[in-house]
Specification:
Length: about 325
């Protein structure tokens, strides 16, 4: 496969391995061009992922089965929806016109895609209203849902702020002193103090997976405060949404998903330790997971909970 060859996205069989170009010192992700070195930590993460992949394959799919189609790209096995939809009873349709469920799937910040032209009557469309998961739109939706202002004007704001890319999942944030001259393509937000009360050296992200706009599971992700913008967790735990949020907060999270049209996906929720308020700083309609650092039994528990919620959302509680 060369760069000139049209890419065909599939979710089963060995074809998805062609997404990678394997070299002597690392691999290249063909779609994004990202280079991943063969380091001990990377090898450990890949090993952990394959353990989950094979364990998730052993989950008996719910019955009766239904057909799903992803557009414009097919979800790969490392995306959470792959294992969840399979456990929910979904089989991959070859054409959108044959599918009972058609999901908008493109791993991009901006994805203004319309549903396929030919669809069967009564088809369930998922996430086609979610076209913009940029940091600017996330901050707008956060204010609309929670009433909490996340965005700041770097020219007018006085104090520390987070400067980050508009692009989703860049993990390139840094803290800057304001006022400052804004950098093109960057956004500026208040610093949410999500340090743990019991250990100020650790920050805590509440990665919340939602189905039908409702929180289903929460992954508590803790990392060193010096690495707060990276995805290098020192501890990951599974919780129910009711354990982490009040009834009012659960409705606010649902209001956020409605604001951006997110019917399936994950949101990064931070609780500020100084005032207890919630802020959603990131949203992803093509989230990967469960988090690598979570133990395998809890990964399977989370997958089962999400698959039950996904099936009820796309097929109805009685199917």
């Amino acid at each position: 496969m060369t760069d000139a060859t049209p890419r065909v996205f599939q979710t089963s069989g060995k074809v998805w391995l062609k997404d990678f170009e394997f070299g002597l010192t690392g691999l290249k992700v063909r779609k994004t061009g990202a280079l991943v070195p063969y380091s001990p930590s990377v090898i450990a993460q890949v090993t952990a992922w394959f353990r989950y992949f094979f364990a998730a394959q052993r989950i008996e799919p719910m019955q009766p089965r239904f057909k799903i189609f992803f557009a414009p790209e097919r979800a790969r096995p490392w995306y959470l929806i792959w294992a969840v939809s399979r456990a929910a009873g979904a089989k991959l349709a070859k054409e959108a016109a044959d599918a009972d469920v058609v999901m908008h799937f493109e791993d991009a910040t901006y994805s203004p895609n319309d549903p396929p032209a030919k669809l069967k009557p009564g088809v369930k469309l998922v996430n086609f209203g979610c076209r913009d998961v940029s940091k600017t739109n996330v901050a707008r939706a956060c204010k609309a849902a929670f009433g909490n202002e996340l965005a700041v004007d770097p020219l007018q704001y006085s104090g520390l702020a987070v400067e980050k890319s508009e692009i989703n999942a860049a993990h390139d944030g840094r803290i800057v002193q304001c006022p400052t001259t804004p950098v093109p393509g960057r956004v500026y937000q208040r610093v949410v103090d999500n340090r743990m009360p019991s250990d100020l050296n650790l920050v805590e992200d509440l990665r919340t997976s939602t189905v039908g706009g409702k929180p289903v599971v929460v992954f508590i992700k803790r990392r060193e405060v010096t690495k707060r913008f990276l995805n290098t967790n020192v501890d990951v735990q599974l919780r129910t949404p009711e354990e982490m949020f009040t009834a009012e907060e659960l409705e606010q999270i649902s209001a956020f998903t409605r604001e951006i049209g997110l019917e399936w996906g994950g949101v990064d929720v931070l609780r500020d330790r100084t005032d207890g308020k919630l802020y959603i700083v990131d949203a992803n309609k093509t989230d990967m997971g469960p988090p690598i650092g979570l133990n395998l039994p809890d990964k399977i528990v989370a997958t089962r909970r999400l698959s039950k919620a996904f099936r009820e959302f796309v097929r109805g509680a009685g199917n």
